[in-house]
Specification:
Structural class of chain B: alpha+beta
Largest interface: A-B, 79 and 80 residues
Strand order of the largest sheet of chain B: 3-4-2-5
Oligomer: heterodimer
Largest sheet of chain A: 4 strands, antiparallel
Number of strands of chain A: 21
Radius of gyration of chain A: 35 Å
Distance between the termini of chain B: 39 Å
Order of helices and strands of chain B: HEHEHEEHEHHEHHHH
Chain lengths: 535, 313
């Protein structure tokens, strides 16, 4: 064991030199780091958002909102289908779980069943159990003259899955349009989106832009309008608040003939109108342009409402048919608002509301304070531990300290080169590793000392000590590794950073104890041929 | 160079740990009972991770006037709002309880606070945890602690014998109960990082325990006739220097982190320091005496040889 071959020498020295080279970028100025990273695999450690500053936002698709929208849509579809087939019906009722419609004439029932069957909406049941089997969004059953559409949970899951993929793409395009640097946007679980935004100045604005549903519609106003608050709108009308005064309501038509969907936009840009007020100009795609042209041509002289997320932004009068497919939205905006509005309109509407279920933001100043504190604590901890190791072990303490430094450098090198994220708890993990790393050496040294006291020769005691301590060192480190693995499994963000440094620290600790320390001791034995163990 | 090493633990120390352990068991029993009592009556001071709600840390222009801030924020109708100095006179931590209206109300509460405080303060950090996430985090935390204990049980069982596994689990339970008791007593904010600390304590305490067990197993093989209590005493005494050295060096690192590491991880570091103390204590005074109570088989030659081979592969 104390015999060192040339190969072993080369391997030990090479691993230490390699570690130093890989850890080196962390000590260099930023400009150099970029250059080095351009030519080699050496790069500085990735800092977590709690150290570099930034926002972690976790958003969830609002399932209730999605249900609601699907129900609204379904109600409209049923009306349209029955009307087209000239089937009379008495009342459509929405409940939380579905829609019920009552057919007036028993003679129509058979035809109604055929027409309604077409509306069950096949849905791809999502990626998880995708076997090519198509499920329907709605189950349909008939009780005499009543037809019930009820949600199938599998179908709804499929819709949620689709909504999350769509939202992911939309959120991504919005964040990119805001010019955020290096955002990370990932799906989490079935219905969540995790967003990491490093170093942003105004998280509130970003959140606002991401979370805006941005559902734009153009709807004709109803013939009757409310005369006071709290009145119920007539059939096929919806009561919506005005943007300039939320207490004021306006009744807009909901039928598909009187509505143009803003999903058919080709482009949206911020701009100014002739009075130099900020506006958003938009252009329809061909389908939208045709529909918008027809709607405006048929209703010249009437007002129509521009509705954004269930709020009436403005309701201009149609002066002439708008056939070119372009238009503008005005409504007391600031330039930042029109800018953001254009971004959300371009990216398209979210299929359902996204709710922020968790948010953690760290300002850049706190982040850099934490780094400074972490570095100071690490250095002082390191010095403390090194002095402490010198007291009982002397020369062997120096060996252990050299191994400790090598350990630290290897830890940094592995973190850097594999792109593991360093968080504040991660720094704590490093400091803890410093304290516990000496344990391997202590176990070995104490063992060597015991063997020596039991009358072995120095050479023999050292050799047996290293060998006998190996099992104990393995055993004791595996227990900490168990804790680290569990931590990694359950933890999120910063905590995971702690688990990572702890786990890597265990490996580097075991490695250095049985390569670096052993190597130094072996060299020392060969050079000095000691008669006694200085422990 | 001639170095006179300093031995922190004199050679051939012979402390009758097993005799003391009767007293230790008694003391630990009382402390555990007290801990459970405090946990049941006072309860833990759960942070936003588990309770939901909002924590904002701000830095004001010049020293913060907590009374002013308190009256400004108290009038917003956000329920319970706590303020405390956080590391320096101009740093303030604002804790707002979970809002009744769910996730959206949480976000609205943050906007209200930001409006009320105006643009002059610097927002150092904002954490908002909605009811759904806090519930999940609570479940995950419980699962993590239970799961890691089970893993430990299996590991020690596999490497040693069932008596050892029970000794280890007893001492871990002891550590976790005493930790939770202390955290409840001093009102330490109990959040995810404290769970991380507890898991690390489990790892550390076990580390200590396993080193002692390793030695006990070795001596069981070597001294087949020695009474178990003497043998355990002998084992603990012989690893005592190592136990002290490692505990103290870990402590040095942790204290440095506690003093210089900043306010954000102070709670976490405190929990770990406590963990090292109870972890070291329990591996000597709880884990090993359990072996005497449960007894252990005395003929280890075969299984030890096997274990050694496995360890060296």
């Amino acid at each position: 064991m104390l015999h060192i071959t040339r190969l072993k020498t080369i391997l030990v020295l090479a691993s230490v030199v390699l570690a130093i080279l890989l850890a080196l970028p962390n000590a260099l100025p930023a400009a150099w780091q970029a250059t080095i990273a351009g030519y080699t695999i050496a790069r500085p450690i990735t800092l977590g958002l709690d150290l570099q500053g930034g926002s972690n936002v976790l958003m969830e698709v609002d399932r209730a909102d999605l249900r609601n929208q699907l129900l609204l849509q379904m109600t409209g579809d049923i009306r349209g289908a029955l009307r087209e087939a000239k089937i009379g019906y008495k009342g459509i009722n929405r409940s939380e779980n579905g829609v019920t419609v009552r057919i007036s004439e028993p003679a129509d029932l058979e035809r109604a069943a055929v027409e309604l069957e077409k509306l069950r909406q096949p849905v791809d049941p999502g990626s998880l159990f995708s076997t090519g089997v198509v499920v329907n969004l709605f189950d349909l059953d008939q009780q005499e003259q009543q037809f019930h559409f009820t949600f199938s949970e599998a179908g709804l899951d499929g819709k949620v899955a689709r909504a999350i993929t769509q939202s992911l793409r939309i959120v991504e395009s919005r964040i990119n349009a805001l010019g955020t640097t290096e955002p990370v946007i990932q799906q989490q679980g079935k219905d969540r989106i995790a967003i990491q935004l490093p170093g942003i100045q105004d998280p509130d604005r970003v959140k606002d832009v991401i979370g805006r549903t941005a559902k734009l519609t153009f709807q004709l106003l109803c013939d009757d309008q409310p005369t006071g608050p709290g009145q119920n709108p007539p059939q096929e009308c919806l009561s919506l608040p005005l943007q300039e005064d939320a207490k004021q309501q306006l009744w807009v038509q909901t039928s598909s003939r009187a509505t143009v969907d803003g999903a058919d936009l080709n482009d949206a840009q911020p701009g100014f109108d002739q009075n130099n007020q900020p506006v958003v100009t938009f252009r329809f795609n061909q389908k939208g342009a045709v529909r918008f042209g027809k709607l405006t041509a048929d209703n010249v002289g009437k007002p129509f409402a521009i509705v954004l997320d269930q709020i009436v932004v403005s309701y201009p009068r149609i002066n002439e048919p708008i056939l070119g497919g372009t238009g503008q939205i005005s409504g007391n905006f600031t330039t930042e608002q029109t800018n953001d509005l254009a971004i959300v309109l371009r990216s398209g509407a979210l299929p359902a509301k996204l709710t922020i279920v968790e948010e953690r933001t760290v300002g850049p100043s706190l982040g850099s304070d934490s780094i400074r504190a972490g570095v100071v604590a690490s250095i002082i901890g390191l010095i403390g531990v090194m002095i402490y190791m010198l007291l009982p072990y002397g020369l062997f303490g120096i060996f252990a300290n050299l191994a400790l430094i090598a350990n630290l450098i290897m830890l940094l090198a592995i973190m850097s080169v594999f792109g593991f994220t360093l968080t504040l708890p991660g720094i704590a993990g490093i400091v803890l590793t410093l304290g516990m790393a000496v344990d391997s050496n202590v176990l070995i040294y104490e063992r060597v000392r015991e063997e020596w006291r039991h009358g072995r020769t120095a050479y023999n005691a050292i050799e047996t000590g290293f060998k006998a301590a190996l099992a104990t060192v393995l055993d004791s480190n595996i227990t900490t590794l168990i804790a680290a693995v569990v931590l990694f499994g359950v933890g999120s963000g910063p905590i995971r950073g702690f688990a990572i440094t702890l786990a890597i620290g265990i490996f580097t600790t075991m490695f250095t104890a049985f390569t670096v320390t052993q190597f130094i001791v072996a060299v020392w034995v060969r050079q000095t041929r000691p008669k006694e163990v200085p422990l | 160079m001639k170095w006179k090493p300093i031995r922190f633990i004199p050679d051939d120390t012979k402390i009758s740990f097993m005799k003391i352990s009767r007293f230790g068991f008694f003391l630990s029993g009382i402390l555990c009972a007290l801990s459970i009592l405090i946990f049941a009556t006072v309860g833990l001071n759960y942070g936003v991770d588990f309770k939901g709600g909002t924590v904002i840390t701000i830095r004001t222009d010049g020293p913060a006037n907590l009374d002013d801030l308190r009256s400004t924020l108290g009038g917003l109708g956000l329920g319970d709002v706590e303020l405390q100095e956080f590391g320096g006179p101009s740093d303030v931590l604002i804790r707002i309880e979970a809002q009744a209206g769910g996730e959206q109300a949480e976000q609205a509460a943050v906007s209200k606070v930001k409006q009320a405080l105006g643009p002059k303060v610097e927002y150092r950090s904002v954490e908002v945890v909605g009811p759904k996430v806090s519930e999940e985090l609570t479940q995950e935390a419980i699962v993590a602690v239970v799961f890691s204990m089970l893993l430990v049980l299996v590991y020690v069982w596999f490497r040693f014998e069932w008596q050892f596994a029970f000794g280890a689990i007893f001492s871990l339970l002891h550590d976790v109960i005493l930790s939770i008791g202390l955290f409840a007593l001093i009102g330490l904010e109990f959040n995810l990082s404290i769970i991380a600390a507890i898991l690390t304590i489990i790892g550390y305490s076990l580390n200590d325990t396993v080193v002692v067990f390793d030695r006990i197993r070795e001596f069981l093989r070597k001294y087949k006739q020695m009474p178990l209590a003497d043998l355990i005493d002998f084992s603990i005494n012989s690893v005592l220097p190592r136990t002290m050295l490692t505990s103290v060096s870990t402590m040095i690192a942790l204290i440095s982190l506690y003093i210089f590491g900043g306010e954000v991880i102070r709670g976490f570091t405190f929990a770990m320091i406590w963990g090292v103390v109870v972890g070291t204590y329990s591996s000597i005074f709880i884990a090993s005496p359990v072996l005497i109570i449960l007894g252990t088989k005395r003929d280890w030659s075969a299984s030890v040889a096997k274990a050694r081979v496995q360890a060296q592969v």
